[in-house]
C-alpha cells in the first residue's frame, strides 16, 4: 500500500515535468525592438517650453503658489495658482518619459527615464536650472511583452526611449 501511495505522489509531482506541446502564453522576444537615443541627445530633451493644453493629465503637485500637473510620459505643466479662482498657465516643462516629481525646499526632483534630475524653476525669469543628474538610478524601459532592456543589444551610451513593433 505504501509503495502505491508513494508512486501516486511521485506521479503528481513529476507531472509538471512532462513535455507539453501547447504554448498558449508564448511571447516572441523579437516582436518589438527598442528605440534608443544617445545619452548626450537624451539629456538635452529636458527643456522649458511655452504653455500648452493639457491632454493626458496625471498627478498634481503643489508648492507655494505653483501647481505642477503631470502630462503622462511627457512632462509637467507649470501653473500659477496665486489666484485660485483664475489659475494661469506659465510654461510646460518637457521631460520625456517622466513619471513622477517631488519637491523639497526649492529643489524639484524628477524621474527622467533612467535618471533622477534635481533642478530649480524660477517664476521671475521663467527659467530652469539643472542642479544635478544622477544617471541610471531607475531601470530601463521594458518592452510591451515585459522583457528587460538588458535582453537587447543596446550600446552602453544609449537610453531606451520606446519600442516599435517589428513586422
From TrEMBL:
Domain of life: Bacteria
Protein name: LVIVD repeat-containing protein
Lineage: Bacteria, Pseudomonadati, Bacteroidota, Flavobacteriia, Flavobacteriales
Amino acid at each position: 500500500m505504501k509503495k502505491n501511495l508513494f508512486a501516486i505522489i511521485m506521479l503528481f509531482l513529476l507531472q509538471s515535468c512532462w513535455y507539453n506541446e501547447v504554448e498558449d502564453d508564448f511571447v516572441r522576444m523579437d516582436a518589438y525592438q527598442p528605440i534608443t537615443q544617445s545619452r548626450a541627445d537624451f539629456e538635452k530633451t529636458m527643456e522649458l517650453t511655452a504653455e500648452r493644453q493639457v491632454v493626458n493629465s496625471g498627478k498634481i503637485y503643489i508648492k507655494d503658489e505653483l501647481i505642477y500637473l503631470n502630462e503622462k510620459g511627457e512632462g509637467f505643466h507649470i501653473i500659477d495658482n496665486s489666484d485660485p479662482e483664475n489659475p494661469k498657465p506659465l510654461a510646460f516643462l518637457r521631460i520625456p518619459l517622466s513619471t513622477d516629481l517631488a519637491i523639497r525646499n526649492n529643489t524639484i526632483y524628477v524621474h527622467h527615464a533612467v535618471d533622477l534630475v534635481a533642478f530649480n524653476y524660477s517664476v521671475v525669469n521663467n527659467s530652469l536650472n539643472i542642479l544635478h543628474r544622477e544617471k541610471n538610478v531607475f531601470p530601463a524601459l521594458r518592452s510591451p511583452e515585459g522583457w528587460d532592456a538588458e535582453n537587447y543589444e543596446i550600446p552602453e551610451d544609449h537610453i531606451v526611449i520606446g519600442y516599435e513593433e517589428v513586422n
